[in-house]
Amino acid sequence: MSDLAASELPLNDDGSIYHLALHPDEIAHTILIAGDPARARKIASYFDRIEFERQNREFCTFTGELNGKRLSAMSTGIGTDNIDIALNELDALVNIDLQNRQIKPNKTELEIIRLGTCGALQEGIEIDSFVASKYGFGFDGLLNFYQVEYSKDEMEIRDAFIAHSSFPDEWSRPYVVRGDQGLLNKVAHDLLIGITATAPGFYAPQGRKLRASLNIEDMNDHLRSFQWQNERFVNFEMETSALFGLSKILGHKAATVCTVVANRMRKEKSKNYQLAVSRMIEQCLERLTA
C-alpha cells in the first residue's frame, strides 16, 4: 500500500489534519454540524462537559459528553465546497493512519447530523417549523468530480426533474443522494420529510433577484410543482447534497434537520428564528442521547 503524499493529505506541523486542525482522538463518532460557528457553540453549550475545543478558520469544533454519550459539534462554514473539506478530513481522521499516511484496512463509520436553517419551498410549510431531508438534490455539481454509484430512485428523481424543468444542458448536471434512513428515523421520525434542494449560492441560485437578473425566472416554480411518486421538494439550503453524497461514498451515516427561517412562496421571514433553532437543537440532542 503506497503512502499518501503530503500534497494530497496535507497536515499541520503538529500532525493535525490541515483545515480542521484536529487529531483523531479529538472527535466523537457522532458529530453535529452547522454552518455557523455560533451554532456549533450553541450545540456544545448543552453538553454536560466539554473536553476539547478548537477553531481554525470557519471550522470550530467542540467535543464532549451528554447523558453519557460522546458527541462533537462542528461548524463547517457555508456551502458544499466547505462540506467537501469537512467530510474528507473527518473521514481521514478515523480511516487514515495520519502518521504513516496509509488507509486503514478496517473502516470506522461516523454519524453526521446537520442542524441547519432553510427556506421552505411549499406554501403550507410554517415558518419556525422543522423539516428533514430524505434526499439531497444537488445543483452544486460537487459530486460530478467523484465516482458515485447512484441508486435507481436517485437517478429517477434526477431525470424526472430534468425533464420536468427543461433543465439547461449547459448547466452543471444535478445529482440526487438519499440520506441514511435509520438516522433519519432516529432524529426526525415525526417531522415533515422530503427532498432538499441544495444550491451553490444564496441569491440567484435560490431564485433571489436584487440587481442581477436571473437566467431562469421560474426555477422555484419548477421545484414547487415537481413530484416523483410521493416525494416533493420541501426546502432550499446549501450543504445537504454534498453531506449525503460524500457520506455515501465514504461509508458514513448522514441526516439533515433544518429550521424553516423563511417561506419562499409566501415571501415571509421568521421574526426570531434563533428561538426555533434552539428548540431544534434540544430536540435532536434528546433523541440522540435518550
Strand order of the largest sheet: 7-12-10-8-13
- Contiguous low-pLDDT stretches (5 residues minimum) are none
Strand percent estimate: 25-35%
* Net shape: globular
Helix content: 25-40%
Order of H and E elements: EHEEEHEEEEHEHEHEEHEEH
Distance between the termini: 42 Å
Description:
There is one protein chain. This protein has 290 residues and is an alpha/beta fold. It is 28% helix and 29% strand. It contains 7 helices and 14 strands. It has helices at 37-44, 80-95, 152-165, 181-188, 219-225, 240-250, 273-289; strands spanning 30-34, 49-56, 59-66, 69-75, 96-97, 102-103, 111-120, 130-138, 175-178, 192-198, 227-228, 231-237, 253-263, 268-269. The strands form 2 sheets. Strands 7-12-10-8-13 form a 5-stranded mixed β-barrel, surrounded by 4 helices. A two-stranded antiparallel ribbon has the order 5-6. Strand 2 and strand 3 (59-66) form a beta hairpin. Helix 2 (80-95) packs parallel to helix 6. The longest helix is centred in the C-terminal third of the chain and has 17 residues, at 273-289. It is globular, with a radius of gyration of 19 Å.
